[in-house]
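Case study 2.
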Amino acid sequence: MKKLAIIAAAMTLSASAFAGFPGSIIDQRGYANCEDMVNAESFEGVMLDRNFIVKRNAEGRTYYLNGSVWRNEARELLTATCTTTKNGRNVLDFDATIGTNITIDEIASR
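Prediction:
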């Protein structure tokens, strides 16, 4: 029973989310725009993970990017969340949090 619940949860998440490259041109465009937003912040030594999550809905796409930055002479975790239009061209909302990386379970619960 527990195994069935895990499989159902994974199928639900995979129906609305996509992880990493390669993706559609739209996913890659949205990722690039979100990456530009991260780089526009005044973070030092940004390193983003190559894999990311895209959660799609009727209004647009939300990208979850994990990475790290230099802060106080040490690497610290970074999570960037970016919402774009459906075609990925325009960033509607952006947030970056230092000190943590987001997990698939956290994304699934949103």
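The domain at 2-108 is CATH 3.10.450 (Nuclear Transport Factor 2; Chain: A,).
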